[in-house]
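Lecture notes, continued. The same structure-token format from the folding unit now serves as the input rather than the output. Read the line below as a description of shape only.
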């Protein structure tokens, strides 16, 4: 699935991932391939991106919004 993390200043990450873990306002949640469509608000915390090869990357966020649609994840982060 494709993921894009965008801040007001730039695109922080753009690529492919097999799992994304996010800080929701009510706790952490994860998105996997073929997830149902979703729009949610993010809280303060870390976004964990697991690449197809198993490599992990982390991104700090102070909040934001996520949209999941047809294996495309768009994160608008603060």
């Amino acid at each position: 699935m494709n993921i894009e993390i965008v801040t007001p200043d730039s695109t922080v990450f753009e690529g492919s991932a097999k799992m994304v873990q996010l800080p929701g306002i009510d706790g952490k949640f994860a998105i996997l391939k073929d997830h149902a469509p979703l729009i949610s608000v993010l809280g303060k915390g870390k976004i964990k991106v697991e690449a197809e090869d198993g490599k992990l990357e982390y991104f700090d966020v102070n909040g934001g919004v996520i949209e999941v649609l047809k294996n495309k994840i768009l994160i608008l982060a603060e």
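Point for the exam: The domain at 2-77 is CATH 2.60.15.10 (ATP Synthase; domain 1).
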